[in-house]
Amino acid sequence: MCASYLDKLAGDRYESLAAALEPAEGLRPEVATALSEDGLTVTNDPGRKMTPDLADIVDRIVTLGFTLNPDVARDIPREEWGIPNPAGRQTPEVRIIRDTVRRLVEKLVARLDAEAAVR
Fold first, then answer.
1. How many domains does the chain have?
2. What is the domain extent for residue 8?
3. Which of 5, 86, 108, 113 is most exposed by smallest CB count within 10 Å?
4. Residue 65: its pLDDT value, please?
5. Which pLDDT tens digit goes with each residue over 11-23?
6. Which residue would you say has higher pLDDT here, 83 or 44?
């Protein structure tokens, strides 16, 4: 969800990369429905595993519902949002999670834009 909203809200100013400690086989149907309701393009690509090598190519890590082992990305700025996993939840719950993620990404984009303006 986070990567989808970053792509939509930031355009080409920032590049997203979605990964997980235990990647899913594809996008869960309840998540796909919630994202498409909000006008996002939905793809069903398999997930990507977060590894130290992958962490080495990013500028910031945002975790939604877990704490990332610091050894995976020791020197990378990170944010831990504590968002519950939407998998298997009812549609109204998934919509609340989706809306929360969207608001957090809006704030993230504003912060990134402010940081870029200062550089």
1. 1
2. 2-118
3. 113
4. 78
5. 999 999 888 878 8
6. 83
Q: Which residues pair with 80 in a beta bridge?
A: 63
DSSP string, 12-67: TSS-----BSS--SS--HHHHHHHHHTT-----PPP-B--HHHHTT-S-EEESSSP
Band of pLDDT at residue 43, cut at 50, 70 and 90: confident
* CA dist., res. 41 & res. 62, Å (int): 21
Residue found under tokens 């519902």: 65
Question: Which pLDDT band holds residue 70 (cuts at 50, 70, 90)?
Answer: low
Which residue reads 């082992």 in tokens?
69
DSSP category for residue 76: S
Length of the chain: 119
Other CB atoms within 10 A of residue 45 CB: 11
- Please, are residues 94 and 31 in contact by the beta-carbon 8 Å criterion? yes
The pair of three-digit structure tokens given for residue 74, joined into one six-digit string: 């020791």
Report the CATH number that the domain containing residue 83 is assigned in CATH: 3.40.50.2300
The span from the CA of 83 to the CA of 86, in Å, is 9
